[in-house]
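hiii so my PI (J.) wants the whole complex modelled not just the main chain, which honestly fair. so below is everything: two entries, each one labled with what it is. i double checked the lines twice but i was tired so who knows lol
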Amino acid sequence: MSVTVHLPTVLRSHAGGAKDVTADGATVGEVLTALASEYPGLSGQVVNADGTLHKFVNVYVNDDDVRYMSALDTPVTDSDEVSILPAVAGGAVDSSRSLPT
Amino acid sequence: MLHVTEAVYDQMVAHCLTGLPEEACGLLGGDPEAAAVVTCYPTRNVAASAKLYTVDPKEHLRADRDAESGGHSIIGVFHSHTHTEAYPSPTDVTQAPDPTWHYVLVSLRDIRPVVRSYRIVGEVITEEPVTVSSR
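here's the output for the full assembly
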């Protein structure tokens, strides 16, 4: 099973600048493992050493966030597209430059 | 230097004001080489907090696809600080996802919103000027 994986700009340098790559696997986890094997620079960027999804990354199968499916066990087929995007978050909490209230 | 259109600037500020009392956030689409923002993508703050923001992941995916279909890409993010100045907080710095992005802060601390932009590379914050053009 070979699926297309769409990489975010921040990870493309690890894949020779490619925006889209292909990788084999029957689940999202297998695809990401194959990807890290093909492009070692991606290792540890999406999946943690303990085999869970990195908290600062979102992974989708087509339009759906895999955290709301079966995470890395989510099945994929040839026609699926896996997208990886950074989780975008932050905020003013703990700001050392906050004015006293 | 970050270039934004008046329309983008107005959309950012309006989205931040309508998000009160919570922080508001959104993504910026445009040309990364020219550092020019042409599309503002207001997004839901799924953290629903006055002190934290998290861009809705599904809206991020839609914005990314829309920007790329137009030959652009997501080149930055904006969010509001409701009661503090327009400067990245430690949270903003540690969670900055992409060193090529532009990080725009909209402070609503004072009556007049303040918009400033930063690059965050390796936790080093560098402010950049923001130019606003009519188109």
